[in-house]
Amino acid sequence: MAWIYLLIAGIFEVVWATAMKLSNGFSILSYSILTIIGMVISFAGLILASKHLPLSLAYPVWTGIGAVGSIIVGVALFHDHLSPSTWLFVILLVIGLIGIKLTTNH
Length: 106
Fold this sequence. Notes:
Keywords: Cell membrane, Membrane, Transmembrane, Transmembrane helix, Transport. The chain is mainly α. The chain has helices at 2-22, 29-50, 55-78, 84-102.
């Protein structure tokens, strides 16, 4: 269950980061509220996950999910352009996250 909490926390990290961008410097109330709600859910998921997973696993996976998810949202929603070499490192990050999950006994 801890890994599910961690996945949810990572997803909501992407939600709050995206909402923060859309809030235009917290000048749009609905996105500002969504940012705060996303932060609360994200941190709550991390707290629940870290009750059962070591910090050395929970925090890097949480930030990794947020990083990869934010990259995908940036490209899909905001038309960010990434070079092929940058995509290579994104793929390596995903491989690293999968490797962390596969090599842990938690």
